[in-house]
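I am writing to request your help with a piece of structural work I have in hand. A protein sequence and the structure tokens that stand for its backbone fold form the material at issue. Please examine both parts with care and let me know of anything in them that strikes you as inconsistent. The record follows directly beneath this note.
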Amino acid sequence: MEENKMPSYAPIIVKLFQTVIYDDDRKTWQELLSFQHQIRNYFATIGIQLHLNDQDGFAF
């Protein structure tokens, strides 16, 4: 039986469901930027859009 592996960006997705992510949370912000494409693709499959404002430093 094949084991389902959780993607490394899954905690960021969970956090986005819970709250706004700000750039002052440097570790999470950098991970969000690094996995932005994969996170956008995941949200698109469930009909949600990622709003990321890099200039003002927040995402939801």
Q: What stands out?
A: The chain has a mean pLDDT of 95.
